[in-house]
Amino acid sequence: MRAPGFWSQPPGLLSAALAPLGALYAAATARRVARPGARVGVPVICVGNLTAGGTGKTPTVIALAERLTARGVAAHVVSRGYGGSEEGPTRVDPAVHDAGQVGDEPLLVSAFAPVWVARDRLAGARAAVAAGAQAILLDDGFQNPSLVKDLSIVVVDAGAGFGNGRVIPAGPLREPVATGLARADLTLSIGSEAEQRTLTLPSPPPRLDGRLAPLATGMPWAGLPVFAFAGIGRPEKFFDTLRGLGVDLKGTVSLADHQPLTPALLHRLGEQAARLSAQPVTTEKDAVRLPPSLRGRVMTLPVRLTLDDWTPLDAALTRLDL
Questions:
Q1: Percentage of the chain lying above the pLDDT 70 cut
Q2: Are 181 and 154 in contact (CB under 8 A)?
Q3: Which amino acids are annotated as binding site for ATP, given as ranges?
Q4: DSSP readout, 175-211?
Q5: Residue 68 and residue 113: Cα distance in Å, rounded?
Q6: What is the pLDDT of residue 1?
Q7: Interior angle at CA 223, CA 221 and CA 225, nearest 5
Q8: pLDDT by residue (tens digit) across 38-48?
Q9: Would you call the peptide bond into 89 cis, given omega within 30 degrees of 0 as the criterion?
Q10: How many CA atoms lie within 13 A of 187 on its CB side?
């Protein structure tokens, strides 16, 4: 879905009219998260957010998986598998599954750690532990009460912040900011230095500042005529990254987050790129939704999460004996 435009604007008449429904949504979330969760015998690290849509959770999960692997910990990821048909628990196998079955994000993350797709997160975590997981990375499970979380990291898009500050459907929030942050152990804000300076968090837990940086691949991007398309939370972030690399950005198309890349849509995108004599480029998350026949023709710009200071996160992992 595309977020309504008024979600990112100062509160107005429409958001005020929807505020009572937002209060009901917030109350339902509060009741849900108050339910007791279960333990599965290994530490559970939750990566979540307070808003609908993308904030950088997937790069955060990848970074944590790599961090834990470097510490000798076998971490498995448990995901709902948004956009996929599998109910699970199913271990993602890129040689067998496609994004339509398991979702684009699990397919992408499976290159870095074992990933389990499960509508029932507890069942997914138990399957992971039975397969040898020494830690669980719970992807987008902050408002899911089925598991006790030993470490909860709330990821915030520093540029978008919390929108108009109201709860769905009056705004982008899944729950009030202060309520959510009170349950978090760490806040990770992702964005440029300018965005970090303008982001204000009310009484937050310890804050980490990070950014998504292009992965050094040796590709000579400067001057390359590019036609870019992206279906992520904020496609403009991807386009800005390309501009920062010095590409000749001939055109861009913003898609909805997780938008299916149908043959008709791909045909239109290909025609646009050809008319502009430009190389099609997309994100890693979008690339896994491409049909195999097109993956050699569409370039991908990979990005990775970098933190200004890893010390608070490493200390939290050490406290969990990881």
A1: 100
A2: yes
A3: 51-58
A4: S-HHHHHHH-SEEEEES-HHHHHH---SS-SSEEEEE
A5: 10
A6: 60
A7: 90
A8: 999 999 999 99
A9: yes
A10: 22
Structure tokens, 195? 């965005």
Question: Could you give the CA distance from residue 156 to residue 188 in angstroms, rounded to a whole number?
Answer: 6
Nearest to 188 by CA among 78, 67, 281, 72: 67
Helix (H) or strand (E) holding 249: strand 248-254
Q: How do residues 52-96 score in pLDDT, each as one tens digit?
A: 877 889 999 999 999 999 999 999 999 998 888 999 899 999 999
* Residue 247 CA neighbour count, 13 Å, CB half: 24
* Residue at token pair 């310890």: 206
Q: 32 and 176 in contact (C-beta within 8 Å)?
A: no
Residue pair 63/168 in contact by the 8 Å Cβ criterion: no
pLDDT of 203 over the 80 cut: no
What token pair was written down for 92?
């993602």
Contact 240, 195 (CB under 8 A): no
- 8 A C-beta contact, residue 138 and residue 46: yes
CB 190 within 8 A of CB 289: no
Q: What amino acid occupies position 218?
A: G
